[in-house]
From TrEMBL:
<dbReference type="InterPro" id="IPR013780">
    <property type="entry name" value="Glyco_hydro_b"/>
</dbReference>
<protein>
    <submittedName>
        <fullName>Glycosyl hydrolases family 31-domain-containing protein</fullName>
    </submittedName>
</protein>
<dbReference type="InterPro" id="IPR011013">
    <property type="entry name" value="Gal_mutarotase_sf_dom"/>
</dbReference>
<feature type="domain" description="Glycoside hydrolase family 31 TIM barrel">
    <location>
        <begin position="314"/>
        <end position="735"/>
    </location>
</feature>
<dbReference type="InterPro" id="IPR048395">
    <property type="entry name" value="Glyco_hydro_31_C"/>
</dbReference>
<keyword id="KW-0732">Signal</keyword>
<keyword id="KW-0325">Glycoprotein</keyword>
<feature type="signal peptide">
    <location>
        <begin position="1"/>
        <end position="17"/>
    </location>
</feature>
<dbReference type="InterPro" id="IPR017853">
    <property type="entry name" value="GH"/>
</dbReference>
<dbReference type="Pfam" id="PF01055">
    <property type="entry name" value="Glyco_hydro_31_2nd"/>
</dbReference>
<dbReference type="InterPro" id="IPR000322">
    <property type="entry name" value="Glyco_hydro_31_TIM"/>
</dbReference>
<keyword id="KW-0378">Hydrolase</keyword>
<dbReference type="Pfam" id="PF21365">
    <property type="entry name" value="Glyco_hydro_31_3rd"/>
</dbReference>
<dbReference type="GO" id="GO:0030246">
    <property type="term" value="F:carbohydrate binding"/>
</dbReference>
<dbReference type="InterPro" id="IPR030458">
    <property type="entry name" value="Glyco_hydro_31_AS"/>
</dbReference>
<dbReference type="GO" id="GO:0004553">
    <property type="term" value="F:hydrolase activity, hydrolyzing O-glycosyl compounds"/>
</dbReference>
<keyword id="KW-0326">Glycosidase</keyword>
């Protein structure tokens, strides 16, 4: 949540002494870096696994946006056959690098040598430049190439008026104490993906610009901002994947590039004027040039190789895949309990109930409002949920309310102050910001006592009645409503909010749902009582949305607060709505270097704390801010989105991005958070979100209610979609087990599975779950059909999930599908064997207690394959497990299992698609079983099986 103050506070004390309400100083990024001398290589030392050399400044220092570093070191390591590590750093080792305690460096293969690697490091010594090629075909085609001296030093065309980046030109290697620059050539019109977190208007494929223009400015600065388009937001992920297609051979290859740097930065994708290449250009405020290259060659392989560097995603509890419900504005435990009861009465499955900051006393973490959420009543409520196999999750904001006087016994603050766990001003005093509780302090995740303090706070909260099953981390960019240390040295006893909250008297949420027409739509939204779609009818459409070393902490002569180069950051200063960049952490680190790590480190600390508080259970955490490796500790939601159709579409892009970023458990605020939704939008969105990893409906205080029981059509659509989701739980769970073991993304862009089909390279209005399930949602209002492309160019058979009919799809182009309100198109691929829950129930636990069914979709040659990972779904670390393997071949399905987990539930039924003629008999383990056969669908259904999956069996039809 983000709501700016009406007026800023003047700093007094240890941080900046300016008025934070005033605009940032004028931007001047006009230095022509083409005059910078670059570097020359010498003192080369080579080994079988790489090289080390020195880089010396090759001429007079240019000191463009800092002081040139004269002496650099380059280390090149062939770490595995598919991963190459290139690190350029200051030999004095004074620049900031991410501590091993935050993200450990990956182990290199002890047997790997340069000759075994698929990647080759090439270089020119003077002026120094390097390029990366493949050892495998296509030979000598650079994947990353810094030899750009021939490009004209011509100003880049502005992206928008007043753009601070327009005057920078030239592409030499620049390494200064407060500015680093490196650029690499890309093919014209390159297929580039990643670099986030962002809502990109260009879609999942990033814009590389046209002649003389910048296509993408990805700013690396975590920011509490409500889901803007083409700007930096909550998370920072400096990895991109490039996908190259050879039209001559109809083949493709992917590779990846990861910049292991947490400093503020702009990463540009652009095309210089009159050039035959596009570029990726890094402009960094500090740190080192620490690059990992991944050879792929497939999209999925790139992502798996990335996981080897940052870590694979955390194991999710099975219950986390159920439906979650939340609202900022449930004003009491009784209202929360009533919503749970209404969900049950409407027979809409609810797995997890959440509470937002309404839960708190005086908006303070680890408390409950004694009037509206008494601790004993919260305990009773949560016990009721637990008895019904349901769960509870509360919010935890990043800022800790500061005790206001000697009678204010707020233990989390007092204990934290005693243990010295809060971020400080440069003079050693507490850094004081302002968030929901009023004046606040912020945990210092680098401090040695923080984990103990954080664990104790969570444990005490649970013991007092908030017996949570997981934790929701919000406002952890970190967010502060004033710039700089706004409470230092002044009276902090006034904790009243300086602005009206949404829904307060004087600040109602009065905007109509998008496309609403009061003369036609009536009180139910954009659908009339009889279901006629009326989006925008006879009404004007609404306008578009307007809405190693420790770095700077140990360096002299650096500008901590306004570095000479100004990164994009939405045209605001670095300390805008967050901590001042001169704030000080344990170990001497400064916020300028560590800002982007706050959300990651909070998630890591919370994960470790929950392993103590909820012993033996998998930590379930959803975090807003993130950095590379955050998926190792937590999931993510896509922030404060809008109740608009375009934001439903953007949710797919966000989910696919985070699969690349190794944060696969991700979702959106279903039906939208900000503004008022309507019946049709919520109907479609509840269906779409049922096929995404994290499934939660959440909306804004003061807005219209949008629980799925509010409208009958939404309730019906939700029940149908959730039933399919719960039936698919073994499939979902197995995909996430694969992600946790080897980094394979569960949700996939179409071209990740079909990389040689260029018509798929920009598709982000459809997606795959695993390799086998294709989802084609409706993303526009007032329609009853939807267009979708079906990969495989006629060689892959797609069947309707619900009817099992073969789809007559157009090869390589869109096919129009019927999509009446309440229906989402789902198709299953041939060659799949998917274990399912036979009877979806109200909760995940009740569902998993029932028997299994099996869906086999044979390919033309009769083959199909699938696996299912089964364990208890909650143990941490994961205990015994069993993998069930299903293999089909013409008229036989073999089921085998391997593992120590005992599967109690039986396989009760099997559906086989692609059986060309009615068999005379179906035998399971040699015993005849009942079956039905539908010739029009080539569908054979065998029932009454009672197969023990621990033992496996053979199913034949003759």
């Amino acid at each position: 949540m983000f709501y700016p103050l009406v007026a800023g506070a003047i700093l007094v004390g240890g941080a900046l002494g300016s008025d934070p309400a005033s605009p940032p100083p004028p931007v001047d990024n006009s230095f022509n870096v083409s005059t910078c001398p670059g570097y020359s290589l010498h003192s080369l030392s080579e080994t079988d696994s790489g090289l080390t050399a020195r880089l010396n400044l090759a001429g007079p220092a240019c000191n463009a946006f800092g002081v040139d570093v004269v002496d650099l070191t380059i280390e090149v390591n062939y770490e595995t056959e598919t991963r190459l590590h290139v690190h350029i750093f200051d030999t004095a080792d004074s620049q900031f690098t991410i501590p091993e305690t935050v993200i450990p460096r990956p182990n290199a293969s002890s047997s790997n040598t340069a000759s075994k690697s698929d990647l080759v490091f090439n270089y020119d010594p003077s002026p120094f430049a390097f390029w990366i090629t493949r050892r495998s075909a296509p030979y000598n085609t650079p994947l990353f190439d810094t030899r750009l001296s021939s490009l004209p030093a011509t100003p880049i065309a502005p992206v928008m008026a007043g753009d601070p980046l327009t005057a920078l030109d030239g592409f030499p290697l620049v390494f200064e104490n407060q500015y680093l620059q490196l650029a690499s050539a890309l093919p014209l019109g390159a297929n580039v993906y990643g670099l986030g977190e962002v809502i990109a208007s260009s879609g999942i494929r990033r814009d590389v610009g046209t002649d003389g223009g910048v296509g993408t400015i990805q700013t690396n600065w975590a920011r509490d901002i409500q889901d803007p388009i083409n700007q930096n937001m909550y998370g920072i992920h400096p990895i991109y994947m490039e996908h190259r297609f050879n039209s001559t051979t109809d083949t493709s290859q992917s590779h990846g590039v990861f910049l292991f740097n947490a400093n503020g930065a702009d990463i540009l994708l652009l095309t210089p004027p009159n050039a035959n290449v596009s570029l990726v250009e890094y402009r960094l405020l500090g740190g080192t040039l620490d690059l990992y290259f991944f050879s792929g060659p497939t999209p999925l392989a790139v992502m798996e190789q990335y996981s080897e560097v940052i870590g694979t995603p955390t194991w999710q509890p099975l219950w986390g895949f159920g439906f979650h419900l939340c609202r900022w504005g449930y004003t009491s435990v009784n209202e929360t309990r009533e919503v749970v009861a209404k969900m049950r009465a409407a027979d809409i499955p609810l797995e997890v109930m959440w509470n937002d900051i309404d839960l708190y006393h005086a908006f303070r973490d680890f408390t409950t409002d004694p009037i509206h959420f008494p601790a004993d009543e919260m305990r009773d409520f949560i016990h009721e949920l637990r008895q019904n196999n349901q769960h509870f999750i509360p919010i935890v904001d990043a800022a800790i309310g500061k005790a206001t006087n000697n009678t204010d016994f707020y233990d989390p603050y007092l204990k934290g102050a005693e243990l010295d766990v809060f971020i400080k001003n440069p003079d050693g005093t507490e850094y004081i910001g302002q968030v929901w509780p009023g004046y606040t302090v912020f945990p210092d995740w680098f401090a040695p006592n923080t984990l103990h303090w954080w664990t104790e706070a969570l444990k005490n909260w649970s013991a007092l009645g908030v017996e949570f099953s997981g934790i929701w981390l919000d406002m952890n960019e970190a967010s502060s409503f004033c710039d700089y240390s706004c409470g230092t040295g002044i009276d902090i006893s006034n904790t009243s909010m300086q602005f009206l909250l949404p829904g307060d008297p004087g600040n109602p949420i009065t905007d109509y749902p998008e496309g609403y027409n009061s003369t036609i739509s009536g009180p139910s939204g954009n659908v009339t009582v009889n279901g006629t779609l009326t989006y925008g009818a006879t009404a004007s459409p609404l306008s578009t949305l307007s809405k190693r070393g420790i770095g700077a902490g140990n360096q002299t002569g650096v500008d901590l607060n306004t570095p000479p180069y100004t990164i994009y950051n939405g045209f605001t200063g670095l300390s805008n709505h967050t901590l001042a960049t001169n704030a000080t952490h344990a170990g001497g680190y400064r916020e300028l270097d560590t800002h982007n790590l706050f959300g990651l480190m909070e998630a890591m600390t919370t994960h470790k704390a929950l392993k103590t508080v909820l012993q033996g259970q998998r930590p379930f955490i959803i975090s807003r801010s993130a950095f590379a490796s955050a998926g190792k500790w937590a999931g993510h939601w896509l922030g404060d989105n809008y109740s608009l159709w375009e934001y439903m579409y953007y949710s797919i892009q966000g989910i696919l991005q985070h699969q690349m970023f190794q944060i696969p458990f991700v979702g959106t605020d279903t039906c939208g958070f900000q503004g008022n939704t309507d019946e049709e939008l919520c109907n479609r969105w509840m269906q779409l979100a049922a096929f995404t990893p994290f499934y939660r409906n959440h909306n804004q205080r003061g807005a219209m209610s949008q629980e799925p029981f509010v409208w009958d059509s939404v309730a019906n659509a939700s029940r149908t979609a959730i039933a399919v989701r719960y039936a698919m739980l073994p499939y979902w769970y197995s995909l996430f087990a694969n992600a946790s073991m080897q980094g394979t993304p569960p949700v996939r862009a179409l071209f990740w599975e079909f990389p040689d089909e260029p018509e798929l390279f920009a598709v982000d209005r459809q997606f795959l779950i695993g390799r086998d399930i294709l989802v084609t949602p409706v993303l526009t209002p007032n329609v009853s059909s939807v267009d979708g492309i079906f990969p495989g160019r006629g060689k892959t058979v797609w069947r309707d999930w619900y009817t099992h009919e073969v789809l007559n799809a157009t090869s390589g182009a869109n096919t129009t599908l019927a999509a009446p309100l309440g229906h989402i198109n789902v198709h299953v691929r041939d060659g799949a064997a998917i274990l399912l829950h036979q009877t979806p129930a109200y909760t995940v636990e009740e569902t998993r207690q029932g028997d299994f069914s099996l869906l086999v979709t044979q390919s033309v040659d009769g083959h199909a394959f699938g696996t299912a990972f089964i364990d208890d779904g909650v143990s941490d670390p994961p205990g015994p497990s069993t993998i069930v393997t299903i293999q089909a071949s013409m008229d036989t399905v073999n089921i085998s299992s391997s593992g120590a987990f005992h599967i109690v539930q039986k396989l009760a039924e099997m559906t086989i698609l692609g059986v060309t003629q009615r068999p005379a008999a179906v035998l399971v383990g040699g015993q005849v079983k009942n079956f039905t056969y539908a010739a029009s669908q080539q569908k054979l259904v065998a029932s009454g099986l009672s197969v023990d999956l621990n033992l496996g069996t053979t199913i034949e039809w003759k």
